[in-house]
Amino acid sequence: MANTADAIIDRRRLRRKLTFWRAFTLFLLAAALISFYFLTSDSDGFSGKRTPHIAKVRVEGTIFENDELLKRLQDVENSAAVKGVILTVDSPGGTTAGGEAIYEAVRKVALKKPVVAQVGTLAASAGYMIASASDHIVARQSSIIGSIGVLFQYPDISELLAKLGVKVETIKSSPLKAEPNFFNPASDEAKAMIHRMIIDSYDWFVGLVQERRKFSREQALALADGSVFTGRQAIANKLIDELGGEDKALGWLKTKGVNDKLPVIEWKPVEKSSLLGLFFSDSAVKMLTRYLGIPEESSGMLRELTGDRMFLDGLVSVWHVDGKPVGAQ
Where would I find the Peptidase S49 domain in this sequence (predicted)? Predict the structure, then answer.
């Protein structure tokens, strides 16, 4: 009986070892297959980027300081194969600093090769700032353009805290330190400080529009009251140059000596900088959810856990409808 029991235990141990090594082998195989797919596929047009082409770069969604996008624009700027650039803009805006960084990167590209902005549904606030960095703006008749301005928002939860019986005590070096804050109504001095900061950034934004669109100061200010315009209204106000889509963008590039028969290749975000990055790319996350039997809709939650930012902070230039940024989730 003892020998039989020992044999059963040995078989179980062997089975566990075999299960472990089988699982480990499958993991290695999956890693190799995913790596091979991403490193050999031409889904980002890598091989095509070596031959003359027109680069398309998308600026979409809420704008933050985006190191990956800035690096991509720098690569476009330095690529001898890129003969012209179509900047596809579809954004309600975002942080002022983020818009400024992308604006400057686009201007650097435009110093070396022609850049045309093609607006989709929306180019508002910092989104319009970025579009104005191009040398020609094309938009649909029903596109939404404008919302030139700057804002600063913060919640005041002091009444809620009072109802809950919570009081926040603060000790600080000076009255305007960390003002305004969530826990007390803003003082007149704090509001005045923020207003001065907003006006300074607003003057800078208006100056960009004035310079890029060749307006007088009066013309720029008249359009910089936060209003939004349809594409038809925007062309009448000279905020854009032409109505249409990518064909019009290609037509303008042709006037700048770019062969309109060249292929248009989209320069997409790169997600294969590391093996870990491969496993947390959108396609890999979806593959993982399917493998685990989780509904594919859950991949969005997994993506959030990797660090996607959920809110705007500081000075922002963003178009709001009913207090919520357009396009925000």
Answer: 111-255
